[in-house]
């Protein structure tokens, strides 16, 4: 099909940009934990940081997924990357002028989590538009492997960078990663989904209910979602 022309070049361009952004974001997340541990030594502060960084994604994720299906995924991905970059830039400017207050770090983590909540479903929805059906499983495996690698590598890299640089430099690297990701998405032509979704009568609540019904009917899917949530909190 015409829309799959040069799909490898398009997919790997976006994948490379997202790889840079995902890894730098994971490194910054760990560096913030090191920073809070060093400055506060409070287990409660660390727990609050984890909750603030996760809850918006967990709570708003299903609703945002419905919204993403109704709008331009490319614009959503670029916007989410730029929001994450802007939040990091503000944190870097404040860190350059003064010691970072804990409350500001919490706000930035909250904003980054919202950005991720928009970005992740948009990226997942874009992949089938770029990749032929017979290649979807393999490409999805690449994305899952990238996430696993970022979780494994980020603590060691963050510890190394935090030992030689300050938090400000690591924030700058993350901002650069988000900008690179947004540029790679911007330069790739993503096929339009067509008018089939836009022609449906908007019914946000109905679609949310359908998602809940699917979870209730599919015990395995619900168990997987629950385990993923417990793993994230753990």
From TrEMBL:
PROSITE patterns cross-referenced by the UniProt entry: MFS
GO CC aspect terms: plasma membrane
InterPro entries per UniProt: MFS, MFS_dom, MFS_trans_sf
Location (main, coarse): membrane
Membrane topology: Multi-pass membrane protein
Regions crossing the membrane: 12-37, 43-64, 171-190
GO MF terms, alphabetically ordered: transmembrane transporter activity
Location relative to the cell: Cell membrane
Pfam family, one: MFS_1
Start and end residues of each Major facilitator superfamily (MFS) profile domain: 10-234
Keywords for the protein's UniProt record, in alphabetical order: Cell membrane, Membrane, Transmembrane, Transmembrane helix, Transport
Name recorded for this polypeptide: Macrolide efflux MFS transporter
Lineage: Bacteria, Bacillati, Bacillota, Bacilli, Bacillales
